[in-house]
Each structure stands twice: as C-alpha cells, then as structure tokens.
Design goal:
Elements lengths: L6 E4 L3 E2 L5 E6 L22 E8 L2 E7 L9 E6 L5 E9 L4 E10 L1
Parallel strand pairs: 2-8
Antiparallel strand pairs: 1-3, 3-6, 4-5, 4-7, 7-8
Protein name: Sulfur-oxidizing protein SoxZ
Organism: Methylobacterium goesingense
InterPro entries: Ig-like_fold, Ig_E-set, SoxZ, SoxZ_dom
C-alpha cells in the first residue's frame, strides 16, 4: 500500500481561531468484499479499508469505521474547527493492518 497516494483537498490552509476548514479526501483502494471468485473459482480474500482517522497534532478530530458496503476508492468530506496550528494526519487502515497515510499543514491565526 506504500505506493498509494491519497488525494487531500482543504478549502483553506490558513484559518482564524474558531474558523472552519472543509476537508475532502479520496484514496485509491479496490475494497474487495471477500465474496467474489477469481477465474479459477477461488474466493478472493476480503481486503477493505476498515478505519479512517484525521488527527491534528496527534489528537483525533474525525474518525469513521468503514464497512464492506463502501465502494472502491472511498471519499470523505467533512468540516473541522481547528484550535491550533499543526499537522493534519490522515490514516486509512486495511484489514491486514497496513496503513495509508498523508499529511497536510494548517495554520490557525
């Protein structure tokens, strides 16, 4: 999963204290349900993202549990009200424990 580069879009990277930032994320992932079979009739193992978190300076400010009904390439859109300048860390966790991560810097004035 290391070669996957998530797309992150912040409507602004500088915000006044108490202001709101809209966040949009998209990550490429096949989200295999574990119910399909390959050309040889063998079941394709389940491999889905099951957790998404957004942390600001190590504190979780948004999270979602993901189920197998979510489509491939999951997209999230949410708003945050950051209280401090720092690093937003976006983490998607797969069934096998692998992680996809991305970061963005924001500034609160």
């Amino acid at each position: 999963m290391a070669d996957v580069k998530p797309r992150i879009k912040l409507d602004k990277k500088d915000v006044a204290k108490g202001g709101i930032i809209e966040v949009k994320t998209l990550v490429s992932h096949t989200m295999e349900s574990g119910q399909r079979k390959d050309k040889d009739g063998k079941t394709i193992p389940r491999k889905i993202l099951n957790k998404f978190t957004c942390d600001l300076n190590g504190k979780t400010i948004f999270s979602a549990d993901i189920e197998s009904a979510v489509s491939a390439n999951p997209y999230f859109q949410f708003k945050i009200r950051p209280e401090e300048t720092g690093t937003l860390t976006f983490t998607w966790i797969d069934d096998d424990g692998s992680k996809i991560q991305a970061t963005e810097q924001i500034k609160v004035a």
